[in-house]
Amino acid sequence: MTKTSTDLPMAIQRSDFASDFVWGVSTSAYQIEGAAAVDGRVPSIWDTFSARPGKIRDGSTGAVACDHYHHWEEDLDLAQSMGLNAYRFSIAWPRIFNGVDAQPNAKGLAFYSRLVDGMLARGLQPWCTLYHWDLPQYIEDQGGWNNRATVDLYLQYVDVITRHLGDRIKHWITHNEPWCTAMHGNWDGMHAPGNKSLPLALQVCHHVLLSHGRAVPLIRANVPGAKVGIALSLHPVEPASDSPADAAAASRHDALRNRWFLDVLYGRGYPAEALALVGEDAPVVMPGDLEAIAVQCDFLGVNYYFPEVVQNAPDEYPLRAEIVYPQDRQRTDFGWEVSPQGMVTLLERVARDYLVGDLYVTESGSSYDDHLEHGAVIDTQRRDYLIRHLAAMRDAIAGGSRIKGYFAWSLLDNFEWAEGYLRRFGLTYIDYPTQRRIIKQSGQWYSAFVRGH
Ligand code: IFM
Predict the structure, then answer these.
(1) Around Cβ 399, how many Cβ atoms within 10 Å?
(2) Distance, CA of 118 to CA of 429 (rounded, Å)
(3) Are 148 and 206 in contact, with CB atoms under 8 Å apart?
(4) Domains of the chain, start order
(5) Which of 3, 50, 303, 369 yields a CA-CA distance of 20 to 30 A from 221?
(6) Ligand 1: which atom is nearest the Cα of residue 305?
(7) Where are the alpha helices (DSSP H) in 51-148?
(8) Are 249 and 237 in contact, with CB atoms under 8 Å apart?
(9) Stretch 202-227: mean pLDDT, rounded?
(10) Within 6 Å (CB) of ligand 1, which residues are found?
């Protein structure tokens, strides 16, 4: 049944959650920073990909984006003014290494040092994502994540960052959404670098996961008291009908979409069901890799957006099921199903099936076609989305889930990858021609909620 704002749980309040609950927003470097060629930054795969005609729906790039590189103080002020206690951001690897000098770029490091100091000065706990998709192009030119040597380059980068910022950052996320890095980047080609090969995608995925596993002990060695995890994009998977064929399709889809990551991270290796289906397309796994990937983490980050409904697609590649979009579901303007219950189902499943320990919702948000009118953005649908997801999270916690924090995606409207600037996810509206920031109704609600009003 379609949910409407009349179903809003009016009584949700901050005091329903633990007093040390982490309330934050998430951002990522390429989506907000701009300043693509400033202070020694070199091109990333996203600069290259977005410059290719037809790859980004509105023909845009992240070259300017929200110009956060120059507006960072104002942006941190916004987060502080919302009353948040945490801020999740990512570091742009191409600001740190340029492929020419072996030494890290002092100006790049200085930017993030200022940024982190700015967070701490505003009472915002820094949550640092080390990789959110912006691989330096010079590394892609040497084979990118398909090349096992990239794992070592990643560790070199992580070593520099954690030595430099580890005195102030205690929360580290090795990778954001390896599914997207691997599959959108290399299977369906929707993201940079734009390849279309499943075996390539699976090998990339393996190297990304390996780099995670090998980075965890390195971060711990460099940062006393570090809390380290990874952020996965996970989806509850529903069969489109009661038929055994759709149930089997849902199981196959879940094996690749969710269990391909969870099983290997939690010590079970890649799911046998999926391995049997991919056959010779399976990645090359070297001795010791699976043990490295299964390193114990301090938390799991879950990025939740929507459930996926799948039906059997007999003519497709065996692992692929057809995703369908039932008409009776409420959707955002991006077409993504709005399902707070899906978040509860997902978090409970993850905690039931794996020894995940602490969970953080490291992303959750919605895209609507917002408009700035008379100086305000009235995004009631996003506000209601937020209220209903926080209520769902409260219920999941009451049911025993160890959810310790929530990061709304996102602080600002930003460059939404293949969609360019056509999709707005922000709690703050960006008027791109002027770079003016306007906190939306949803951001004002989140602020009032977090402040306990
Ligand atoms: O914008 C992205 C983000 O970079 C990763 N998670 C999903 C968001 C919305 O698509």
Answers:
(1) 11
(2) 22
(3) no
(4) 5-450 (3.20.20.80)
(5) 303
(6) 7
(7) 68-81, 93-96, 106-121, 137-140
(8) no
(9) 98
(10) 28, 31, 177, 303, 363, 409, 416, 425
